[in-house]
Design brief:
The chain is built from five helices and five strands; from the N terminus they run βαβαβαβαβα. The chain is α/β, with parallel strands linked by helices.
Length: 126
């Protein structure tokens, strides 16, 4: 599975990477980007299976990236890992096809659920 982690915090990208690796999922290929514009460049090279994206980033934020991903009709699983995991943000993201919204700090068990093919029980804000 190819996973793209997008966050302007290098430390947060490392934390998410470590959690994913510790999940024990076989054959993970993880790439990173620090904002939405960088992420689009990565997606042009190779489309990931799963995108884990921060909401608030410079250059291009997460919701703008999601809109662009949908405009380009990229077929991938997309969701947010953010400190702004509010019900309103979730409503906006889910209308655009986001599958999940996790609140920071992240739990390894939540990331493990995302790696499964069926993410119907993926966390969302209430």
């Amino acid at each position: 599975m190819n996973v793209l982690i997008i966050d302007d915090s290098r430390t947060m990208r490392r934390v998410v990477r470590r959690c994913l690796v510790e999940s024990g999922h076989d054959a993970l290929q993880i790439v990173e980007a620090s904002n939405g514009r960088e992420a689009l460049a990565v997606m042009e090279e190779q489309l990931p299976d799963l995108v884990i994206c921060d909401w608030a980033m410079p250059v291009m934020d997460g919701i703008t990236l999601l809109k662009e991903v949908r405009r380009l009709d990229y077929r991938l699983r997309f969701g947010f890992l953010t400190s702004t995991a509010t019900a309103e943000n979730w409503r906006q993201a889910s209308r655009l096809g986001a599958e999940f919204m996790l609140a920071k700090p992240v739990l390894t068990e939540d990331l493990c659920r995302l790696l499964r093919a069926d993410a119907t029980d993926a966390p969302v804000p209430s």
